[in-house]
Amino acid sequence: MFRRTFLAALALAFGLGQATLAETRTFVDSAGRCVEIPDAPQRVLAAGPPASVLLYALAPEKMVGWVREPGAAEKDFLAAPYRDLPTHGRLTGRGNTANIEMVLAMQPDLILDVGSVDETYASLADRVQEQTGIPYVLIDGRFARTPETLREVGALLGVADTAEAQAAFAERALARLEARVAAIPDAERPRVYYGRGPDGLETGLAGSINMEVLDAVGATNVAEAAGAGGLANVSVEQVLAWNPDVILAADPAFEQAVTSDPVWANLAAVREGRVYRAPALPFGWFDTPPGINRVIGVEWLTDVLYPEAGEGEGDLRGATRDFYKLFYHVDLTDAQLDALVAEAAPGQ
Question: Residue 346 to residues 148, 159, 190, 246, 274: CA-CA distances in angstroms?
């Protein structure tokens, strides 16, 4: 009771709490929660990494800070001055680092979470909103509804024009993806293992939001054999038994290990030279986080998985340049573009 009273007092000290009814409107979020939000939010705190990417893409001027401080290499692909905003930690997911006092200290007038929507996330939103008086909304971040997510949050933040341009880009990317994948016979769709971390032994199971891009491009996730769920640790023996046609690495250390360690040498993916590291600057193209950053990832992954059916690297380069300008607010140099798309074609 004392802690709740203290936090309420702290909220008042920062001038936070619910705005007057004349300054708010009712928003029904993806969890069905009716939330009184500001008519024109000006300071928005992202609850987790997918929300952080979306907020940066749509309205970087409204960000109070980053969930995780961008590294030096990541900052090269982010616009000034937003790349140097403070870090407030994350409220959601594994490794959550933000606390209520820190949230209050950032003085947001809205908290935004994007991604999976279930009872756990709704309960967290209710609890944080009750303790701080700051409206907290949940938005469904499934990959298939990316255009809808962009438009919904764009309207929420008062940046509908930006959201419409980004949503249209995403719709075109998804339409190209659908057309290309539809032309691939089932027999030619590869079995893929996606390894996270330096040892590559963390992966996504069936139904994991982290594996949505793989589903979207019509490939088979070999880890579905381990059952349904989110992220999980597996063994080397399991990966060897699955014998994937393609290996996707999230970490350069795993990419190096799987292509040089004799333990992996007999895998079909290794023998055929089909091991790729997903581009990851400033955000992952496949995952890390599972947000709107994956829109450019489907362009890359279809080239990786179906090189003979692709339209050529030139299309990927153009799409990458356009995506980074529209979503990340940066003009890529030729050197940056070369580095980003190098993994898209074998032998480069």
Answer: 34, 40, 16, 12, 8
